[in-house]
Design a protein that fits this description.
Two copies of one chain form a homodimer. The first copy, chain A, is α+β, with helices and mostly antiparallel strands. The first copy, chain A, folds into two domains: about 140 residues, 2-Layer Sandwich (60s Ribosomal Protein L30, Chain: A), CATH 3.30.1330; about 160 residues, PurM-like C-terminal domain (Phosphoribosyl-aminoimidazole Synthetase, Chain A, domain 2, Alpha-Beta Complex), CATH 3.90.650.10. Chain A contains eleven helices and 13 strands. Chain A has a seven-stranded mixed β-sheet with strand order 8-10-7-11-9-12-13, sandwiched between helices. In chain A, α3 packs parallel to α4, α3 packs parallel to α7 and α5 crosses α6. The longest helix of chain A is centred in the N-terminal third of the chain and has 18 residues. Chain A is globular. Chains A and B meet through α1, α2, β2, β3 and α3 of A and α1, α2, β2, β3 and α3 of B. β2 of chain A pairs antiparallel with β3 of chain B.
């Protein structure tokens, strides 16, 4: 089954419209830029005024058809949304406020125009939600898969930059939201793609997979009130993030499996379908939650933060240790935390 | 024939090494960053201090295997070099000084490790030549072609920004360097790929195709001394650039075919091989020269600029007109300038 809807009777492809017209259409969809955008789409490059007294945070991320998504289980509009959400999550992990984005698309010439438009609409929806302005990009032809490459820029106060470095033994590890939902959503969609058009057994997991919420406001606040000494986002799963954070700081970490916040609906779905919810939570990617480290001296700032951030839970899942080992406490036994997801 | 050299006896692929090791290798090749780079490769995002009193210029460009290049006629090291040169040319067209770049690669898992390393080395060679720092990026697996996506950021004084807009009837049109060389180089390489390893009938054209020189210093100076009222780079050929510049300004342009600077070696090669040199110069892309507009009142600034820029010729090729037509004067006859290259 393919979710691309051609039932409106048109079978136009992107190559029917041509590069200039695609760009024109795209341009017409972009809201007016804020005054600090000096040159937007349509010139050789975009020009923006940097935010006063701030550093510029920049990141790039790609979604590739056949690797990160497949139109048999996700709609084009959600691919567009997710492609920006992934980069926004990187900005959030640095404590940055989103500002501008560039969208580089490699389009198979036979890609239905509808898919292109839906994808751009999804991208712009995410952009609107998180107040980031599309100021430039690139359209190329692809002889293979559709490739969505997203660059995002943000601003962060010079002394508010959150990095992966700064964790010390004794610090506490926190994670936002719930873990394993996106991976469960993907499993459900891969098993029953028709679910996208119907009711589902676990709609929250599907929503989390298709429309992830990058923790932009949380990242900004964590950076601003200095609650955390180090932070990383969970693009490739909790286990991977814990390992990367430990390795960046030359420390160990000990995670308590019972503390890992898993959505009860996901736990139930996993039980019913013979999946191990803990494994899904550790290995499953694309939750786009934040994992951050709170030193004892920042405990008060953290509690203040918790009062401000009511829309997302913040859960203590373990501690930073001085032994260079990443451990998982599970059912009274301690073992090495398995490594995370690797792209190759 | 394939130019990928596996004669060193290793047949390692990028998937043999794996994502983390590829990133580590890449990291080890990057020179120490300048002090205004606060966070570089290895975190969720990079952080840089904006240049004081400057605007940020940003652009993204992609090179895709099978569309923009093919290892049957260009070496991996040159693909890496060109991928950055294309983005640098966009910065130059805005009058910007290059600062930082992000490299997003979609790698087929069977890509020889040698190709990956050569490509990165070529990219870093271009980065060194033009003083731009690689601060971040992304590695993905590709189920299809190799995709090289390059984001580049530069800085430009707030009142020194060069855009495509500003051309007025009566202004003079100038182009830098020589035109049609890169397209001729591509023709030669496609006809005789063995040339890459041998002597060639037109080495300058091949060099121009494989190792283009983005006009970074020229762009900076044109912006700084306000010699030009509008500027664009020639990524898709002269005809395309003239049409785009005319359309951005709601004006016409008249080009004199005799004035177009074509390398005499290219003219000779075209004569010997039954190509029309003028057609190649108008339609052929990837010269990465600058096309800019000099108003009468800026004539003195322009002459001052010409004295400063001795390494590249600046040639008057036509004028801006009030009739909304783009014309070519050729052998005493005036006709519409054919449109440029289109990607779809």
């Amino acid at each position: 089954m393919n979710l691309i809807d051609t039932s409106n009777g048109t079978h136009e492809t992107v190559s029917d419209l041509g590069e200039h017209q695609l760009i024109e259409w795209l341009h017409s969809r972009i809201p007016s830029p804020p005054p600090w955008v000096k040159v937007e789409l349509g010139d050789d490059a975009a020009v923006v005024e940097p935010k006063r007294n701030s550093s510029t945070v920049l990141t790039v991320d790609a979604l590739i058809e056949g690797i990160h998504f497949d139109f048999s289980f996700i709609k084009p509009i959600d691919v567009g949304f997710k492609s920006l959400a992934a980069s926004l999550s990187d900005l959030a992990a640095m404590g940055a406020t989103p500002r501008v984005t560039l969208l580089s698309l490699a389009l198979p010439p036979k890609l239905p125009l509808r898919v292109f438009k839906d994808m751009v609409n999804g991208f712009l929806e995410a952009a609107k939600q998180h107040s980031i302005q599309l100021v430039g990009g690139n359209l190329s032809r692809s002889p293979g898969p559709l490739v969505v490459d997203v660059t995002a820029l943000g601003a962060v106060g010079r002394r508010r930059i959150l990095t992966r470095r700064g964790a010390k033994p004794g610090d506490e590890l926190f994670v936002s939201g719930t873990i394993g939902s996106a991976a469960t959503g993907l499993k459900i969609l891969k098993a029953e793609p028709s679910i996208l058009q119907n009711n589902s057994s676990c709609p929250s997991a599907i929503e989390r997979f298709c429309r992830p919420t990058p923790r932009v406001r949380l990242g900004e606040l964590v950076g601003k009130n200095r609650a955390a000494s180090a932070c990383i986002d969970l693009s490739d799963g909790l286990a991977d993030a814990v390992h990367q954070l430990a390795s960046a700081n030359d420390v160990g970490m000990k995670i308590n499996s019972k503390a890992i916040p898993i959505d009860p609906d996901v736990v139930r779905w996993c039980q019913e379908h013979g999946s191990n919810a803990l494994e899904v939570a550790l290995q499953g990617g694309e939750d786009y939650e934040l994992l951050f480290v709170v030193p004892k001296k920042s405990r008060r700032n953290f509690l203040a933060l918790k009062r401000l951030i009511r829309e997302v839970s913040l859960t203590s899942i373990g501690v930073v240790t001085s032994e260079i080992e990443v451990l998982l406490e599970h059912n009274g036994r301690t073992s090495l935390l398995p490594p995370g997801f690797v792209h190759f």
